[in-house]
Amino acid sequence: MASVVTVNDIINLLDEMAPPELAESWDNVGLMLGRRNKPVRKLLLALDMTQETVAQAVAKKADMLITHHPAIFHKLGNVTDADWQQELLLQLAENGVAVYSAHTNLDCVANGVNSVLAKRLRLQDADVLDTVSGLGRIGELAQPSKLHDFAVFVKKALQADYLTVGDAGRKVKRVAVCGGAGADLIGLALAQGADTLVTGDVKYHEAQQAVFSGLNIIDAGHQPTELPVLDDLADRLSLRFAEKHWDVAIQVARETLLLKHI
């Protein structure tokens, strides 16, 4: 007979895979909502706690929702239905769904957001870009590529709705990546010999800094650069559950891209 798996068991495993101490000091990671002794039979993985993912968690009768972005980021003075995020927390609590978030600790850990992104973009010999924080990765393409051709590949590989590209006039060979918002790594990317940086949420003046300093930059969007980690995490959790003989079903939520071209 299979042993009962609890929220606390899942937390211990996730903390082993993405240690909370790796998170940035400003971040909020770990158990956001729920009882640690609650039995878990169904897990749902998502990038964000949104109306879309909470509806799926409730419909699928998930016992636990694991998100990348913190379900609670700023300190709450109250929890009411006057705020859309608090309303979602109420729905989850009312349906007995525990919530756990792994954010910057999942970004920087081996096999985390940035390692998966580097692998998805077929970077060889990928190494850590920021050795202090552990954020970002940098590696080589098998063959040099024109920026346009590489951008088309990135769009397809990440299933992005659109890309924004800054052309510094360089061929693509040594590529730095950072899932989410990584424009603050422009200087490190240049210092480590990158000709191209793939990230999201790039502002105009950040793009200027990159391009005029000789770095191609591809803004593939915040969501598309982070979503690939979910399928990878689901696969790794499934293997660990099998090793432990845990009877817990895992699903990855469907998440519509928030920002689209029209």
Automatic annotation (TrEMBL):
<dbReference type="GO" id="GO:0046872">
    <property type="term" value="F:metal ion binding"/>
</dbReference>
<feature type="binding site">
    <location>
        <position position="222"/>
    </location>
    <ligand>
        <name>a divalent metal cation</name>
    </ligand>
</feature>
<protein>
    <recommendedName>
        <fullName>GTP cyclohydrolase 1 type 2 homolog</fullName>
    </recommendedName>
</protein>
<feature type="binding site">
    <location>
        <position position="69"/>
    </location>
    <ligand>
        <name>a divalent metal cation</name>
    </ligand>
</feature>
<dbReference type="GO" id="GO:0005737">
    <property type="term" value="C:cytoplasm"/>
</dbReference>
<feature type="binding site">
    <location>
        <position position="226"/>
    </location>
    <ligand>
        <name>a divalent metal cation</name>
    </ligand>
</feature>
<feature type="binding site">
    <location>
        <position position="68"/>
    </location>
    <ligand>
        <name>a divalent metal cation</name>
    </ligand>
</feature>
<keyword id="KW-0479">Metal-binding</keyword>
<feature type="binding site">
    <location>
        <position position="107"/>
    </location>
    <ligand>
        <name>a divalent metal cation</name>
    </ligand>
</feature>
<dbReference type="InterPro" id="IPR002678">
    <property type="entry name" value="DUF34/NIF3"/>
</dbReference>
<dbReference type="InterPro" id="IPR036069">
    <property type="entry name" value="DUF34/NIF3_sf"/>
</dbReference>
<dbReference type="Pfam" id="PF01784">
    <property type="entry name" value="DUF34_NIF3"/>
</dbReference>
<comment type="similarity">
    <text>Belongs to the GTP cyclohydrolase I type 2/NIF3 family.</text>
</comment>
